[in-house]
Amino acid sequence: MLFNDLGLMTELCQAVSEQGYSQPTPIQAKAIPVVLQGGDILAGAQTGTGKTAGFTLPLLQRLSATKITGKKRPVRALVVTPTRELAAQVAESVALYGKHLPLRSAVIFGGVNINPQIQALRQGVDILVATPGRLLDHISQRTLDLSKVEILVLDEADRMLDMGFLPDIRKILALLPKQRQSLLFSATFSNEIKRLADGLLNKPVLIEVARRNTAAESVKQIVHHVDKKRKRELLSFLIGSRNWQQVLVFTRTKHGANRLSQQLERDGIRSTAIHGNKSQAARTRALADFKRGAVRVLVATDIAARGLDIDQLPHVVNFELPNVAEDYIHRIGRTGRAGNDGQAVSLVCIDEKKLLSDIERLLNRKVTVESLAGYEPNPAITAEPIKNGRGSHGFTKPRNNRNGGGQKGGQKSERSSRAKNSQRRRVNSRVNS
Ligand code: AMP
């Protein structure tokens, strides 16, 4: 099947072929015709399936069917994403796929100066990509009007709920016209997501490209059992001996990400960390350095890595398993993207046995274990409870948070601290917006 067969206009087919895509991915083949017809969709698709083009291409076509005359261009399509990085990436895709069409787009997210965003909105925007917190800031400053939105996309809806954005989403929905097309994308389907979908979508077409909660088939998953204290040494060994050139490494905590990145640097491996305590500029720079190969290892926490689109990322390492099994699927979804093979290696110590069995239950299968000579766990070491940040290493750098909700204890698990305190969860999610 070709993109032309899906009913896409020449300008879009041209943009797609300039990207070097010859065929639509399964989600694109399923979603594009439905969206072109004006239907709502509920799509179960992980990042890496080509879902962004799946909604962006038909959205651009629908908007260009109506000619807007006059100076004032109202926002007619709104894409809401959980993180700044994802917003920036979706906006990039909108600009890329729409480059042969006379439509205007803009992206708004927190952590950066609001004034250029206000300027852009004032000039008129057809497609707006936004994170929830900053979107509502614009609403309260009356610099954004959503009353003419024809198409709404909620991207990575499960993560938005995880990050505590549900109240914000509800506020945003209340500002949109009732008569509109809505597209909801989510990697997993909790009851909460189903409830949100029920209230939001009108007779949606259900599209699922990977089985529910199933990791991408193209990802080879391996577990190495190793003692906690030897994980860093093993990681350096794997990177060096196997000559891995681009590795995304996950830690549970921000402090852990910083520390590991520094240790790898000391081992002579160019590395940088990306997490919620870093400024937007630092996160963007770290990602750009990683993408262009200036940095070999990017160490990330779950939230910071969410939605990162790095083409053909070959290796993902779980330096620590995530507390929540679904995050494992999100993590390994960074590799094996759009048909490329990838490898996800998990370094598992005795404390993490339960986390591993939770993941295997979710995957509905065992992950292959490979033992590495010289790194076998010491049987004398017994399991200890996993610390998520109550230790003495937490740093107290205040967060860049206009609500004044500086979070202490950089070693805290981003997720567990959110789960513990709904007030703090709200503050954190605004910071991530
Ligand atoms: P996404 O799931 O939207 O994050 O897309 C994952 C990656 O697949 C991105 O790097 C896209 O550029 C790429 N991609 C999207 N559509 C196609 C396609 N039809 N053929 C090949 N690569 C694609």
Overview of this protein structure:
- The model is unreliable at 389-433 (pLDDT under 50).
- The chain is built from 17 helices and 14 strands.
- The chain is elongated and about 75 Å long.
- It starts with 9 loop residues before the first helix and ends with a helix.
- The protein has 433 residues and is α/β, with parallel strands linked by helices.
- It folds into 2 domains: 3-208, 3-Layer(aba) Sandwich (Rossmann fold); 219-369, P-loop containing nucleotide triphosphate hydrolases (Rossmann fold), CATH 3.40.50.300.
- The chain has helices at residues 10-18, 26-36, 51-65, 84-97, 115-122, 132-140, 157-162, 166-174, 191-200, 231-241, 254-266, 280-291, 302-305, 325-332, 353-363, 414-420, 422-432, and strands at 41-44, 77-80, 105-108, 127-130, 151-154, 181-186, 205-208, 219-225, 247-250, 271-274, 297-300, 315-318, 342-348, 368-369.
- The strands form 2 sheets. It has a 7-stranded parallel sheet with strand order 3-4-2-5-6-1-7, with helices on both faces.
- Adenosine monophosphate (AMP) binds at residues 21, 23-25, 28, 47-53, 309, 311, 337-338.
